[in-house]
Fold:
Amino acid sequence: MTTNWNVYKISPIDHGWPYLKTVSETARMIGGNWAEAEINSLVADQPSVEEFLESYHVALEAAVAAGYDGIKRNDPVVFWLPDTLMFSYGFVFKSDHGGVTYVVTPNSLPWLNA
Structure:
């Protein structure tokens, strides 16, 4: 599980949300893939559902600590970035208060500070 999260509080992102999977959709996908790997005795190259959801809760706490009020305009979504030998996931939360968008990721995204 990733414990060092970067939180970026950015201007509202109003377009493109339908192209990203929600946390619930992603958890279901990971659960199915992980279970299939377990059944077929394959080495799972992804987190278990429990690890993913634990990461989500830690990322949510980090967003709240940065000012996210928890009143969501959109369901939280997951995005993926290439990392060394695998893809890492992050989360995006959009507050109903002013539409402020919080990007929480284990990767540094310095352009979001601009």
The chain has a mean pLDDT of 87. The first strand starts at residue 6 and ends at 10. The first helix runs from residue 23 to 39. Residues 6-113 form one domain.
